[in-house]
């Protein structure tokens, strides 16, 4: 198994690189549906329910990266719009996850001793695909 390093990742939305990526997280979950009946010997039984994915990306703020997908509004004009196509790359042109998302949040933060940063939160819509390089 090849080890992937986390210092060469990228994020694109609608095929456009969004910003200078610091980190991202991707969470895949599946609901469970209980099928327990009285004759199951006191044990609970479940089947798989609906699946979804959510995530976030922490970036260094740069209005030039973001403005193209927000129609010139660098404060996150696509929040709640969508869906848009997300691609998260583990390495610059390597393994990646892609799917349609709704951007659910966009927050900007700054401190006296640091750079201006932003966090993009998203909710998957439909399936998520993985492609190995």
Please, could you describe this protein's structure?
- The structure is a single chain.
- The protein has 133 residues and is mainly β.
- It has a single domain, classed as Beta Barrel (Elongation Factor Tu (Ef-tu), domain 3).
- The protein has one helix at residues 63-66; strands spanning 10-13, 16-17, 20-34, 46-60, 84-89, 96-109, 117-131.
The total of beta strands comes to 7
CATH topology value? Elongation Factor Tu (Ef-tu), domain 3
Number of helices: 1
Biggest sheet features = 7 strands, antiparallel
Taken from the alpha-carbon principal axes, the silhouette is: elongated
Beta-strand content: over 45%
Structural class: mainly beta
If strands are numbered along the chain, what order do they take across the biggest sheet? 2-1-5-6-7-4-3
What is the CATH class?
Answer: Mainly Beta
Fraction of residues in H or I helices = under 10%
CATH architecture: Beta Barrel
Radius of gyration from the alpha-carbon trace, in angstroms = 18 Å
Spans where pLDDT lies below 50 across 5 or more residues: 71-77
What is the residue-averaged pLDDT? 82
Number of self-contained structural domains: 1
Order of helices and strands: EEEEHEEE
N-to-C CA distance: 13 Å
């Amino acid at each position: 198994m090849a080890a992937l390093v986390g210092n060469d990742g990228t994020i694109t939305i609608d095929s456009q690189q969004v910003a200078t990526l610091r980190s991202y997280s991707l969470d895949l979950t599946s609901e469970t549906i209980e099928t327990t009946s009285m004759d199951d010997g006191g044990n609970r039984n479940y089947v798989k329910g609906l699946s979804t994915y959510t995530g976030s990306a922490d970036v260094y703020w740069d209005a030039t990266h973001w403005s193209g997908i927000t129609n010139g509004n660098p404060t996150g004009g696509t929040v709640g719009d969508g869906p848009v196509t997300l691609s998260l790359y583990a390495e610059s042109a390597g393994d990646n996850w892609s799917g349609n998302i709704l951007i659910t949040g966009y927050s900007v933060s700054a401190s006296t001793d640091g750079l201006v940063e932003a966090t993009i939160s998203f909710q998957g819509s439909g399936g998520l695909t993985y492609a190995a390089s």
